[in-house]
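Recap quiz, item 2
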Amino acid sequence: MVGADLENLVNESAILAARRNKRTIGMSEFVESIERIMAGPARRSRVLDAEDRRVIAYHEAGHAIVMEGLEHTEGVGKITIVSRGQTLGYVMPLPEEDRNLRSRAEYEDTIAGLLAGRVAEEIMFDEPTTSASNDLERVTKLAKAMVTRFGMSDLIGPMQLNPGESNPFMGMEIGHQRSYSEDVARKIDAEVRRIVISAYERARTLLQERKAQLIAVAETLLEKEVLDRKEFLHILEGNSPAPAVAAANAD
Amino acid sequence: MVGADLENLVNESAILAARRNKRTIGMSEFVESIERIMAGPARRSRVLDAEDRRVIAYHEAGHAIVMEGLEHTEGVGKITIVSRGQTLGYVMPLPEEDRNLRSRAEYEDTIAGLLAGRVAEEIMFDEPTTSASNDLERVTKLAKAMVTRFGMSDLIGPMQLNPGESNPFMGMEIGHQRSYSEDVARKIDAEVRRIVISAYERARTLLQERKAQLIAVAETLLEKEVLDRKEFLHILEGNSPAPAVAAANAD
Amino acid sequence: MVGADLENLVNESAILAARRNKRTIGMSEFVESIERIMAGPARRSRVLDAEDRRVIAYHEAGHAIVMEGLEHTEGVGKITIVSRGQTLGYVMPLPEEDRNLRSRAEYEDTIAGLLAGRVAEEIMFDEPTTSASNDLERVTKLAKAMVTRFGMSDLIGPMQLNPGESNPFMGMEIGHQRSYSEDVARKIDAEVRRIVISAYERARTLLQERKAQLIAVAETLLEKEVLDRKEFLHILEGNSPAPAVAAANAD
Amino acid sequence: MVGADLENLVNESAILAARRNKRTIGMSEFVESIERIMAGPARRSRVLDAEDRRVIAYHEAGHAIVMEGLEHTEGVGKITIVSRGQTLGYVMPLPEEDRNLRSRAEYEDTIAGLLAGRVAEEIMFDEPTTSASNDLERVTKLAKAMVTRFGMSDLIGPMQLNPGESNPFMGMEIGHQRSYSEDVARKIDAEVRRIVISAYERARTLLQERKAQLIAVAETLLEKEVLDRKEFLHILEGNSPAPAVAAANAD
Amino acid sequence: MVGADLENLVNESAILAARRNKRTIGMSEFVESIERIMAGPARRSRVLDAEDRRVIAYHEAGHAIVMEGLEHTEGVGKITIVSRGQTLGYVMPLPEEDRNLRSRAEYEDTIAGLLAGRVAEEIMFDEPTTSASNDLERVTKLAKAMVTRFGMSDLIGPMQLNPGESNPFMGMEIGHQRSYSEDVARKIDAEVRRIVISAYERARTLLQERKAQLIAVAETLLEKEVLDRKEFLHILEGNSPAPAVAAANAD
Amino acid sequence: MVGADLENLVNESAILAARRNKRTIGMSEFVESIERIMAGPARRSRVLDAEDRRVIAYHEAGHAIVMEGLEHTEGVGKITIVSRGQTLGYVMPLPEEDRNLRSRAEYEDTIAGLLAGRVAEEIMFDEPTTSASNDLERVTKLAKAMVTRFGMSDLIGPMQLNPGESNPFMGMEIGHQRSYSEDVARKIDAEVRRIVISAYERARTLLQERKAQLIAVAETLLEKEVLDRKEFLHILEGNSPAPAVAAANAD
């Protein structure tokens, strides 16, 4: 790798970390970025076709509205559909205080926010696309971590279900053996599914109430490509749902 | 490896990527090409026997007609039964805008297009051959990706079912552990099967309606070996199915 | 790694070992510390936000009260919520005689003490957080060791269930095969769960009786950040539960 | 390895490839040959005992008659019971046009031809021997490939069941994970068994009808050790079954 | 490692081998000793606390009385509770003739002798400790070997159930595959459990009859730290159970 | 390793090969011999204790009588109970013609012969010992090979059940994956068990009829340590069972 590649690698990793609301670039971001650069160097600096741009705009608008609308997710700092590397668009959260702990409610809202891109597409276009792939990966990992790492599922209880999973090779998972019975595997799957489906329903309810906002944000994005917080909030205000709905949503 | 081998390697990889509608040669194409060259250097530049040529002609004609006939697949750019390396024939899609997203409908039509080669053989010769091996591999991977990567199966939901699957060794799968229960494995298998069988039926219905086109394209291919888009469309026009059938097929 | 990194590594390892009541730094502490330093060098010397500090204070107070209150756990030497490295707070046990054996009762009380941080959060905030992750890992490993290594489960009996598990690579677990049937796996899971849930209930009962102490210790921690044994015992005395309750708890 | 070993290695590989009707020596033939040479260098140039010779003669005669008698198998070029290396005898097929595709019917007939050696022994001696080991390996691989690679089983459908199976290490199978559920594994096993048993019955029926031919070919082989196509066909003609039977067998 | 480390390694290995009644130090003793030295160099030459010493004394006394009392175990040569390295105490068997074969009865009695340490603790203190960890490991391995290696279980029969288990890496078990069905795994588990529980009951019955001996031996050990055979037998004689009981025990 | 070690290694390997009726030393004999030498160098040239010698004498006499008495096993060339290396005694078969094929009947008789050592001990001493460990390993491998390699089980049929099992690392089994369903695994286990139990019963019946021969051969062995064929046959003649029994046994 020459210098330009390394610069590209760092850039990709930084964007990945940003999408994951991480303040630092971790091992996993580097690894993913290397894979991406290896797999598709020719895709950098591309121009999206019109249909893709439209899907992305609604996808990012969905993320932004749910992230802003739920209690335990971070506020929206910036929304962009300028593609860069593998990233076709993203929502940059507000800088927050440097928090170390996450509650179950935060996990649940984060999962709903991640699913909101897919939900927005379904509401508008009725057809799921591949755009949500990274979101679904994070959703599944978060829901699984709630159940198997953080003891946040009452069915499983205050335990960690793969204590032997972390291995000495810097957190990469190689060849570890499942340490529990098929019965417990089934319970984990059921709990993960319950968490994901429940968050999906919450995102769907919220975005259907706020469909006017969704359309307004997405259409402005298609026009301007980037929205800062001020612009975003301004659009929301101009398209807020009826008070009754907003109140019902607040609890 | 000497220079000629490398050239051959790049050629094989490029054809493989083309068959997969990829614009760039990825790691997987290189790996497959290396295997092929190691396994059978003596097979290059061979002459097909007459029976094989006939099967291939109908096989490629089947691909072409379904790819052209379904709404979400790419148009046909070129059809050839000139064999080269391991590739006995292929359909080159039209250059399309550089799309980044794929919808469920596109996946379903792509799978139907991939199965159409096998379907054409069954309609004409009643007997499946090994010619569809690469198609079936792609079909299964695409259907599995729909279910486990892109959340396109309602039974499984918006999740990724092997979040730990991608590993740091450039996407090659080595020794990773299945991360879900036997119950979920059974659901995945059932969904993958449902998607494949449904696409197969659609390809079969379409090709049976357009059997005249199939025969015309295949017989011309046997004669000319290569058809460009213009020639291909010309044959289709001269052998279009009855309007009633075409209309029924359009929805 | 330069000198400062190594110093940091040793510090991290020492804190990890202390949290685990180990007198020596083992291989596993080194490995974990390396991972932590690799993953997040930027997080050192951070300031906790107010909400996190409050959760941590109650979490550590919960540990301290249950460790002090149960018969077979070590007394509390020091409590701190000064974060350092990945460690946001911890309870330092009293130096004890150099014991080599542990009884089932000690394991059960140790597990209850480890779960007490999570229990305290639930009593005060109703919502679990990620703070208990390391505690849950230790809890699960201890409960599993009781069942599969030390023959402390009557259902399983005086056996070791993975005699082939310890391997020559310094105790790290790589690729070993489960040596028992699915039936036994199910029994192990049931026993581990029974032990953990039972300890959880004991910690919960004890902390609910001593909620006044919990609040007093946590609030003082928030003010002073560090409590030594004398200060800690002084707070307990000033907030002891009604005698009846204390007596009931003593058996 | 010195020169003579290498020569021996190439010879062994060539014979193996010939027995598999391959025109080129592949990686798998080299690997097997290395194993064989390592395992038993002293067995080269041995003399078979009389009983073994007799079993081999009927075994090869069985192969030859079924290969000649079925519609989709290659004609017999040469039959030999001169042992060389690990190979105690073999049937060399007629040189055929360089075919690339194989139909389901060809696979079914090839499997029947491979099983015919075993069948001949059972008809004549009532007792199976180890002589069929390589045949059974190929039979199982071919039947499994029909089901899992070439989509030739209606129960499984047009899919490939281990898309992740081929790995980058030149086709050698190391540590890949089964990618389907136990349910599908059971269906595959049932289909593979159905294909093998059905081919076995066909070979048995055919050889029982042509028992006179079987005896004539085998006894001539015992006398002459090698038969060319002309000699072989001449024996068949002199011992053809009753016309009614031959006609019934033709469909 | 410097010279002192090597000396220590050899010492540890020798003690381990002695505890296992082995006359030579094997690979497994070296590996275990390396692990122990790496894990806890600081623990050498420690002083046991009083409670631990008491548990160890009864534990070793239990071993000694059952080993002496059963027909097929070796006589007691020396008992010590002087801790050294990881070993807190042990019973040194009498030097015996160099036997090569072991009968099922010897295995059963050896297992009972190994379990007797745990049994003694339960009889005296009602609470199991971690002291029996090594004993339980050996017990499980011996019982499993009886069932799967030596054909000593009628339910399984005269077979070896993991013929592929021993591998070329000097007996260390790495990544081998279980070669039998879940049904057989369940039967093995049941047989291993039956053998262990039955030996446990025999050790318990014997020690309960001889509780006076147990107390006398353990209390003398606490006083003298080491007992030779003569001293041990003298204590037994002074505390022998009623003749009726001894007779009942003799069959 | 120095020269003496190498000599020892070759000796051990040669004995191992001899016990397995192999005419050449294979990879597996070398590997086992290396393990044995590593594990127990001190055991060479040892003297057996009297009880072990007696067990071994009856064990080898059992092998010899059944090997001589069954139709498809090799005749006895020499019997010895002079121990050497790990081998405490063995029966050397008659040199036979260099056979390449083995029938099902030969396998069944070979298995019965291998089990006869264990059977003889049970008839005489009622108690199984560890002496049969190597026999049981071979018995299980042979019975498994009959079922899964040579198609000699009607329940499984003419198939090979682990076609991917042999791997490129010289026949050593490392990390291969089971290629069949749990259902088939259960059937294999049942067939292997059926074959072993049936051979065991045949060996038992034969040795009980010829108990006088068994005692005579074993007692002579204890006296002379080595018997050649002539001596062995002479003892058999002097102790042959009643004609009626011998005739019944002949079919």
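The radius of gyration of chain D is 19 Å.
The CA atoms of residues 166 and 172 of chain D lie 8 Å apart.
End of item.
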